[in-house]
Write a structure and sequence with these properties.
Chain lengths: ~375, ~220
Amino acid sequence: MNLSVKIRKNLGDFVLDVAFDTGEGVLGLLGASGCGKSMTLKCIAGIEKPDEGRIVLNDRVLFDSEAGIDVPPQKRGVGYLFQDYALFPNMTVAQNILCGARDKDKTAEYIRRFDLVGKEKLYPAQLSGGQKQRVALARMLAAEPEVILLDEPFTALDNFLKARMEREVMNVLDGFGGPVVFVSHDRNESYRLTDTIAVMENGHIADLSEKHELFRAPKTLAATLLTGCKNVTRLKLLEGGDYMAVDWGIRLHAPIAEKVLAGQQANRSEDGTVYRYAGFRAHYLVPVEPGDKERVQGKENSGSSNLLICDILREVEDTFSVVIQFYQKGLAERTEYSLLTYETGKEDWARWKKQCAEGEIMLRIPDDALIWMKD
Amino acid sequence: MDWYPLWNSLRIAGISCVIVFFLGIFFAYYAARLPRAVKGMLDVVLTLPMVLPPTVCGYFLLLLFGVKRPLGVFLMRFGVKFVMTWYGGILAAAVVAFPLMYRTARGAFESFDENLSHAGKTLGLSNTYIFWKIRMPACKQGILAGTVLAFARALGEYGATSMLIGYTPGKTATISTTVYQLWRTNDEAGAFTWVLVNLAISTVVLLAVNMLESRQKTKTW
């Protein structure tokens, strides 16, 4: 079971150029709106035609520009769930499900399975959002697709409904054996529903990894930002293999292995550095006891590595946590990326502030929390 | 009283309305898909009859289909003559009513949610099925409105009709040309009768439209 996609299409503002294999499980396409992820789905479904490339679904060639193959959407066996469900407004629930059904006798079964009994004769305009999605799912499955494409199905929903709809979609995906591509701009949603994630930016894939790996160590700046990392900086290589975080104004302690890499000319990019950006997630910071400052500095043995002294701009209270926005104390030149965020529990923060009432608030970036990016 | 003008007007309006219905939908559907520049040009040509005085349309029709013009001569070989015949009225009415159907239908098609068509395709539905069972029903309001407007316009056509087919009692006379003819010949009572007939037909048409609309509202979509 596999969907293999390798396509190119000029979209005017940028060129869509993506290649991926879904393999088993759910592949997520994560990216900001207008990055080409929906267009990718439309090319797979055959609604849009790529300029060149090849699309193969379970050994069946759907599109091949060189061989001149372009299977019409009707014969591709693609199940497409649209953002607004695209139910036919002039047809009842039953007619919507029946019209594309491979086996007309099974319609009643789908109506039962998706809890639509008694709603058969209603029109889409008479249904709630949840019911609409269930009709769309039933209609899609009744056509017995070989691949399922989900195009931001939860975007327009409120949080309560979203959680319920997600469960329903998960149920459908669990029972579906074929490849699934899930498009979203929401990192949490993508994380919950997929196994592998391709991060898209301006028409190309910035990173494609297993989801845990992607969120732990994204490979590019675009992927880091799209996976929700709020703290990033440009880097400057220092003597001895450590780095200067240009935007934050502190030294960063490069892992031993990276120091070795930096020493090898082959690994350096043109300007002599191995890594160009670094980042860390807002909740990975560790508070430093006032008395520990010397000890931390001593351990790092290279000035105040990884140590942030907070010049707090504001504290933003969230539902269950508090987000502290701060600059490094004494930072000479503030840039777009200089403002750092630290997220922690409300009680923890209150206690910590009390403890540091006299002196400065200090936070340390653990070595393993740092994300290193080559581009 | 001779009821021929009523019968003639109804058949001219009815037949031209059917022709305009299909032609209007055809052009509206394909114009919505054309590149912008071509679409603009086509739009101008197809909408001109709506803004030109009907007599100018009639003039152009005579220029094309006049018995001494090449096209008119050519058609005469097949025994088809649009000048001074009742079915010439169909041509005149169709030309003048066409833009109303075309523009209203195009507006309806342009506001159609293309995702419905995309969804239909991925479900394996044929393009013909999608057009007649999904696109047309979704655009029903606009298409119905266009049809009614076209019918009403065809029924009330005077200028182009009188230029092309003139007024021959019992042959080419329509309600509108009869009203003018009777008024011109000081038969005020006769003219008034036909005015009442015209009013009656228009009222029936508008009532029918309102009934259709209210029935649709109870269907909730």
